């Protein structure tokens, strides 16, 4: 896939590159469509988590792409999916709230309880989880 070959070439990630990688991740999950039972470890990551993984991969690819350079230009880890804790870099797994702040935020409002087949179609596709609609989310 061409998108993976572009990782590490630029610190800013284009919307097209991120979309191609998201599409690949979703395609990898299609064999799961007919599986019975739930194995949550097999679910694709949400957009926030996937974006952090893509940013980390981009940062690591830049190190490897420039490994033969005397003075390599490396991307700043803290802007690319890493957090500095106790003088060590650890993955930043997500941005934002991991869970809703209150139980009330998880409950459906009465008008949202009318679930239809068209809702099922909209929620069954991984592509619908894309929160990144413009390039500004990927640039400094």
Number of helical segments with 4 or more residues: 5
Q: Alpha-carbon distance between the termini?
A: 26 Å
Largest sheet: spatial strand order? 1-2
Give the biggest beta sheet.
Answer: 2 strands, antiparallel
**Mean pLDDT value:** 75
Structural class: mainly alpha
CA radius of gyration is 18 Å
Principal-axes shape call: globular
Region (Disordered): 106-140
Biased composition (Acidic residues): 110-121, 128-140
Describe the structure.
This protein has helices at 2-6, 15-29, 47-65, 103-106, 117-123, and strands spanning 82-85, 88-91. The model is unreliable at 118-137 (pLDDT under 50). With 140 residues, the chain is mainly α. It has five helices and two strands, in the order H-H-H-E-E-H-H. It has a two-stranded antiparallel ribbon. It has a domain at 48-102. Helix content is 36%, strand content 6%. The longest helix is centred in the middle third of the chain and has 19 residues, at 47-65.
Present the secondary structure layout.
Blueprint: H1 2-6, H2 15-29, H3 47-65, E1 82-85, E2 88-91, H4 103-106, H5 117-123
Antiparallel strand pairs: 1-2
Region (Disordered): 106-140
Biased composition (Acidic residues): 110-121, 128-140
């Amino acid at each position: 896939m061409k998108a993976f070959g572009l990782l590490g070439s630029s610190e800013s990630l284009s919307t097209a590159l991120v979309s191609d990688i998201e599409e690949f991740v979703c395609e990898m999950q299609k064999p799961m469509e007919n599986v019975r039972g739930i194995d949550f470890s097999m679910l694709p990551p949400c957009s926030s988590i996937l974006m952090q993984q893509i940013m980390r991969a981009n940062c690591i690819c830049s190190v490897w792409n420039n490994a033969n350079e005397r003075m390599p230009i490396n991307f700043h880890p803290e802007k690319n999916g890493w957090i500095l804790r106790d003088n060590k870099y650890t993955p930043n797994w997500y941005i934002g709230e991991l869970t809703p702040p209150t139980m009330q935020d998880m409950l459906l409002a009465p008008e949202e309880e009318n679930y239809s087949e068209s809702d099922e179609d909209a929620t069954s596709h991984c592509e619908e989880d894309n929160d990144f609609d413009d390039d500004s989310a990927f640039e400094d």
